[in-house]
Amino acid sequence: MIISRAEIASALSAYKTVKRKSSTAANPLETTDSFERSDAASSLSTFQSSATEPFYRPALVDQLRHQISEGRYFVPTEDIVEKLLGRLLVAAAY
């Protein structure tokens, strides 16, 4: 695409006209901007803050920590094998 000198001059004159009009407009410091958060944004903000907080059950964590420290924590072998095979199947699918 080739832009002629006449097109450039036309664009510049239009820009200068717009610039002059905006400079003669009311003082931009006199206008005030405002922001109002919608209900959806407020609920999303609430959800985000609750999602970033750690979610765990302190009583269960304390119980498991106590069992581990005493050497009484036991995971059935079947559960371990099931998790390992499940992860292998997922990895093989990709």
Question: Which keywords apply here?
Answer:
94 residues, mainly alpha, 4 helices
Q: Could you describe the 3D structure shown?
A:
The two termini are 47 Å apart. The protein contains 4 helices and no strands. The protein has a domain at 49-94. It is elongated and about 85 Å long. 67% of the residues lie in helices and 0% in strands. With 94 residues, it is an all-alpha fold.
Helical percent range?
55-70%
Count of helix runs:
4
State the shape: elongated
| Total count of strands | 0
Give the termini separation: 47 Å
* Residue runs with pLDDT of under 50 for 5 or more positions: none
Largest sheet: none
Name the structural class.
Answer: mainly alpha
If you average the pLDDT, what whole number results? 80
How much strand? under 5%
What gyration radius follows from the Cα positions, in whole Å?
Answer: 33 Å
Following the backbone from N to C, one meets helices and strands in this order, namely HHHH
List the helices and strands and how they pair.
Elements: H1 5-23, H2 39-52, H3 58-70, H4 77-93
Describe what is shown at a glance.
The chain contains four helices and no strands.
